[in-house]
């Protein structure tokens, strides 16, 4: 805590994430309250942010086919281990195995891979992207949680998609464990209280804050 008694932005984000996770009931403690999503264009040195995350948080390492994926992944694995942070790899099962990651994140187009991945790696944390209520409902039960986006007006590639809003988040969170992604900032995160989300995910807001 800041000596002045004021909470820092990082403390506020983490405390809100933990409160969401606790309110989600059975998943409390089983799922990271906050997920830092990497992006090669927006998070060029993600291991530095990962090293500053609070223990219990998670990182979703998205490579998008970059040639430096293995090198970056190894730096992330070292940083997350030291910080007590879980590491999920986006889509690439082989890379996740090589890095001894804690799980896998599947894009919406690849949600059908969840069942065989669960069979091969029952210990992994599995999350999957959903960009509509219909996709979230249809997502395999093998997933531990869906990541619904964009909830608010977002940056990056999600910037072209209309925000789904908190009411849609509530609808999906009532059905299954759900993270809110897209436009989550220090200002919008408070709006997630009472939504039923098990936590939130972000790119820029987490990198800028931690």
Keywords:
eight-stranded parallel β-barrel, disordered N terminus, alpha/beta, 210 residues
Structure description:
The chain is an alpha/beta fold and 210 residues long. It has eight helices and eight strands. Strands 1-2-3-4-5-6-7-8 form an eight-stranded parallel β-barrel, surrounded by four helices. Helix 2 packs parallel to helix 3. The model is unreliable at 1-5 (pLDDT under 50).
**Total helical elements:** 8
Structural class: alpha/beta
N/C terminus separation: 14 Å
Mean pLDDT: 93
Number of strands: 8
Strand order, main sheet: write it out.
1-2-3-4-5-6-7-8
The stretches of 5 or more residues where confidence is low (pLDDT under 50) are 1-5
**Biggest β-sheet description:** 8 strands, parallel, barrel
Shape: globular
Compute the CA-based radius of gyration. Answer: 16 Å
Please give the structural blueprint.
Blueprint: H1 9-23, E1 34-37, H2 46-52, E2 58-61, H3 69-83, E3 86-90, H4 93-99, E4 103-106, H5 114-120, E5 125-130, H6 133-138, E6 145-148, H7 166-173, E7 178-181, E8 199-202, H8 204-209
Parallel strand pairs: 1-2, 1-8, 2-3, 3-4, 4-5, 5-6, 6-7, 7-8
Describe the structure concisely for a colleague:
With 210 residues, this protein is of the alpha/beta class.
